[in-house]
Amino acid sequence: MPVDLSPHEVAAFRRGEAPAPMLDLIGLMACHAIRAARTLGLFDALAAGPLTTDELAAAVGAAPDGLEQLLGLLRATGYVERHDGRHANTPATAAWLCSTSPVDYGRILGLWQAIVEEQWDGLAAAVRSGTPAGGFYTWLAARPDLSSAFHDLQRGLAEWLAEEVVSRVPLPEGSKSLLDLGGDHGVYAEAFCRAYPGLSGTIVDGAVTERSAGPLTWRTADLLTADLPGEQDVTVLFNVLHGFGAPDAAALVAKAAGTLRAGGLLVVLESLPCGTTADLAFGAGFSLNLWHTQGGALYPAETIRGWLEAAGCTAGPWQELTRSPAHALVTATKPADHG
Ligand SMILES: C[S@@+](CC[C@H](N)C(=O)[O-])C[C@H]1O[C@@H](n2cnc3c(N)ncnc32)[C@H](O)[C@@H]1O
């Protein structure tokens, strides 16, 4: 957690009287301290109750002097606290950094640390030339632990959002077929199939194993070059467009529209650059990462609407999700007389 600055300190940083990059340096140090703490099992050891340094050292198998230093930084950055000589997790740590936390943000932090440390190498050259490094999914596939963290993150987010997404997207009556482009885990397709008995889902994704389970079938293919099935009642593009450069994203929307029967629905779910100050700052970093590692970006809502309309669809209003205001969806209909 960022250090808790007094208004006087914030003003000094803002006026340039204190070096603002020092705050980012502290954040960088904190990231590494969290990684070390998690490798040691420190937060999980404290989850059972407050411990002295010696007790904690024995519990995690560490030398007390180094541990004391690590605890010093974790305390300064808001991850542990000390009362009467005993260390305890702060509420933020209990909520996000223990293996029993509802969301294990430490795993997400580890994934992002690796992305930034390895994939952002060459950022200046890419910005200078205007040519992103790309290769994100190849890089990811070669790192099984990070790949699991990435796909588990997608799955976890989908499990959190699927119920709301299904409730916001009424399917045409009698819908039988749903195509989930870049659908990975298939959680959204599964949620739609549960809500609409008689519906079957096909998930097309470059990083899946081909298989079938109940009403779902997974196909491995590149979205840009694959022959996709046609006459679909519903086709969804969830968190996919941001991974493509604008011309390819627009072409993918047109290709997705081409999979629909007349009157079918095309649904897009995306992160939009909006939300709290923290959401906006993260979104800016996420978008830079998308550009550099995939040639993509977080696109404005109106840009995506333009692609839907250029593909001959009639788009409804964007709906911001209550569960995650940084995500929004738009539903577009392929007119009965189109194509
Ligand atoms: C950010 S994930 C989103 C997964 C899922 N739709 C969701 O919302 O949870 C993007 C997915 O698109 C897939 N993908 C990206 N580029 C692709 C391509 N060119 N062809 C096929 N799949 C691709 C990735 O493998 C990944 O599973």
TrEMBL record:
Keywords: Methyltransferase, S-adenosyl-L-methionine, Transferase, Ubiquinone. This is Ubiquinone/menaquinone biosynthesis C-methylase UbiE. Residues 136-312 form the O-methyltransferase C-terminal domain. The keyword Iron does not apply. Pfam families: Dimerisation, Methyltransf_2. Gene3D superfamilies: Vaccinia Virus protein VP39, Winged helix-like DNA-binding domain superfamily/Winged helix DNA-binding domain. One of its GO terms (biological process) is methylation. GO terms for molecular function: O-methyltransferase activity; protein dimerization activity. The keyword S-adenosyl-L-methionine applies. Residues 27-97 form the O-methyltransferase dimerisation domain. Coiled coil: none annotated. InterPro entries: COMT-like (IPR016461), COMT_C (IPR001077), COMT_dimerisation (IPR012967), SAM-dependent_MTases_sf (IPR029063), WH-like_DNA-bd_sf (IPR036388), WH_DNA-bd_sf (IPR036390).
